[in-house]
Amino acid sequence: MKPTLAFALLALGVAAPALAQSAGDWTVGVGFGLVSPKDDNGLLAGAATTIDENTRPTLTVEYFPWDNIGVELLAATPFKHTATIAGVGTATTKHLPPTLSLVYHIPTAGKLTPFVGAGINYTAFFSEKSALGVVKMDDSVGLAVKAGVDFALSDKGALRTEVRWMDIDTDVSLGGAAIGTAEIDPIVVGVSYVMKF
Question: Into how many domains does the chain fold?
């Protein structure tokens, strides 16, 4: 292979799109998240409880104080879930799960940039409804971890896929009386388009 051709191919490889993150950068991601609670959600009113999954639009904003290390805030439109208490009845609730994470984006020379992160989730429950009576679910604070990968479409945009786990437990009352703790602890699968500014 002629040296000039070799250098040309090398230059093309180096110039391949990559979503590199430098100190001072911002990214915004818009997509969808599937919140899938774990299978066993604990006992409410002494009966086994299951909580269904739900998908909603999501938004992430991330600032990079250092190269490849960002502080990310996850937001979403309200998720809605139905809790089924075996032999007793059902209740529905909406929630917002804002999550603040410290994220390390692993630098690579290609289009794929994996990342891992950890932080704190705050889940606010509201609009609880049930034919059984007045239901109240307490807000939750817990650990959140994440991992995923960005596929660069250009030097300013990427397609992101990620998986999160969140520690979400809520004390539940019915008619003012405590009936137990719902252990939600969901896996959250997300797909989004990320833009760098």
Answer: 1
Alpha-carbon span 63 to 123, nearest angstrom: 22
Domain that holds residue 52: 3-196
Q: For residue range 134-184, what is the model confidence (pLDDT) as tens digits?
A: 999 999 999 999 999 999 999 999 999 999 999 999 999 999 999 999 999
d(CA 149, CA 139): 30
> How far are the Cα atoms of 62, 78, 169, 185, 190 from residue 53, in angstroms, in the given order?
26, 13, 15, 12, 13
Buried b (16+ CB within 10 A) or exposed e, 43-64: bbbeeebbbeebebebebebeb
Tokens encoding 13: 């490889």
pLDDT, tens only, 14-70 = 444 667 889 999 999 999 999 999 999 999 999 999 999 999 999 999 999 999 999
Contact 55, 33 (CB under 8 A): yes
CATH number, position 134 = 2.40.160.20
Q: Torsion angle, CA of 38/42/44/50, rounded to 10 degrees?
A: 30
